[in-house]
Amino acid sequence: MRTATYFFIFLNLSLALFEEPAVYPLPFLATSVLEVLCLLVFLGRLTHFAKVTLHNVFWKDTKNICIIVAILLSLTDLSICGFLRMYDVSSVRWSRIARPIFLINFAESRQIRRAFRSIRNTLPEITYVFLLFMFSLLMFSLMALKLFGERNLQTAEGLPYFRNYLDIVFDLYVLVTTANSPDVMMPAFELSSWYALFFIAFVIVNTYIFMSLFLAVVYNNYKKHLKVMPGGACD
Fold it and tell me: Where is the Ion transport domain (predicted)?
């Protein structure tokens, strides 16, 4: 039963590869039949679980309620999408975001659920570090706008360089990963090599300090919650 449940869960998740927009598109009817089959298996597994569980216990379990709601949402979305396709109206399958609920909430997924709880409990405690990082990013972006915004610089593609605040935030956010380094600083560097100090300071503060701090906080808090959870084990 556990193997069958996992198989249909991953089959349901893998349908995203074949539904429009898809990597390997399949006809809508084929993906719909597979999804309905998965939902019927989930409903059957839930019914079997209800048969061997006390009525009050079953309906007080949030996991069972989440699965029932996810099944109803998926069937409703599938019906609406099929109806619209009959009239050649394109639509978005919004119920796809509910599919991981099956992976988390079935009784067979105890270890996955434990990891999910640890992540959920860790998120509030890393919020402060994330807010500090965002504050640093926004301040550096404001400094970049003041330094380069009125110098009429252009990128190698001939686009305006660091003249829009939101574009600057995005470019510097990418620079945290060093994915656009050193291209992002070349127009300023060509104007004056001293401007390289701005980008060096940005990388030191945000890439090396904040990212290391962020990783340390995430790791320590996740390990702490994994220790205190029932059945958790961590040396």
Answer: 6-224
3-state SS record for the chain: CHHHHHHHHHHHHHHHHCCCCCCCCCCHHHHHHHHHHHHHHHHHHHHHHHHCCCHHHHHHCHHHHHHHHHHHHHHHHHHHHHHHHHCCCCCCCHHHHHCHHHHHHCHHHHHHHHHHHHHHHHHHHHHHHHHHHHHHHHHHHHHHHHHHCCCCCECCCCCECCCCHHHHHHHHHHHHCCCCCCHHHHHHHHHCHHHHHHHHHHHHHHHHHHHHHHHHHHHHHHHHHHHHCCCCCCC
Query: What total of structural domains would you count in the chain?
Result: 2
Provide mean pLDDT across the span 89-116.
Answer: 82
Taking only the tens place, the pLDDT of each residue in 148-169 is 888 888 888 888 889 899 999 9
| pLDDT for the residue 235 | 37
Instruction: Specify the pLDDT at position 88.
Output: 83
| 234 lies in some domain | no
Query: Does residue 209 lie within any of the structural domains?
Result: yes
The pLDDT assigned to 228 comes to: 65
Verify that 79 and 152 share a domain, yes or no. Answer: no
Average pLDDT over all residues of the chain: 86
86 & 127 share domain: no
Does residue 19 lie in a domain region?
yes
Tell me which residue range forms the domain holding 153.
118-228
